[in-house]
Design goal:
Largest sheet: none
Distance between the termini: 97 Å
Helix content: over 70%
């Protein structure tokens, strides 16, 4: 009876953690949408300002759209990866607790704790590696996109200057 109550309590704790994870994911998405909306409004103001040139409009708009899609992809991947990590840690912790209840003595209990700590360190190292790989891949892709956009803006600028000089000369 006591064991059933404990399992029920752990089940309730897991449900609360799962609900908190979902709330956190929704909050991240909400903040990401607000940030994107703010960026779009700022860009629209920039386009309407006296300093706005057609030279920058199209490439910058494409770059911003691309950056937004990349931001969404990375946030989604990070959220999924974090959920999997938390679930993996919860499962391992639950297993350790269940094993500790059935352990025959202090030496078995210490072995269970040591195994849990080793798994804990391995999981965090693997998670850090995954996040680093995601960020590296994103940085590589964005560097090439920025380079292409900068080249396009430079070319459009040259063409605009040449056109302006030709008009002055005529």
């Amino acid at each position: 009876m006591a064991r059933a109550k404990r399992r029920h309590r752990y089940s309730d704790d897991e449900n609360e953690i799962e609900m908190a994870e979902q709330d956190a994911g929704e909050e991240v998405e909400h903040v990401a949408r607000e940030t994107a909306d703010t960026a779009r409004r700022q860009f629209q103001r920039f386009e309407r300002s006296a300093f706005s040139l057609d030279i920058f409009g199209s490439p910058m708009a494409r770059l911003m759209d691309h950056n937004w899609s990349m931001f969404q992809k990375i946030m989604h991947a990070m959220r999924e990866e974090s959920f999997q990590f938390v679930n993996r840690r919860l499962d391992q912790t639950t297993q350790a607790i269940e094993s500790s209840r059935e352990s025959g003595g202090i030496s078995n209990l210490l072995a269970i704790q040591q195994e849990w700590i080793v798994n804990f360190v391995e999981d965090y190292a693997e998670q850090t590696k995954r996040f680093a790989e995601m960020v590296r891949d994103l940085a590589e892709e964005e560097t090439s996109n920025i380079s292409r956009t900068a080249s396009e803006v430079t070319e459009r600028g040259r063409e605009a200057v040449e056109t302006a000089e030709q008009r002055r000369a005529a």
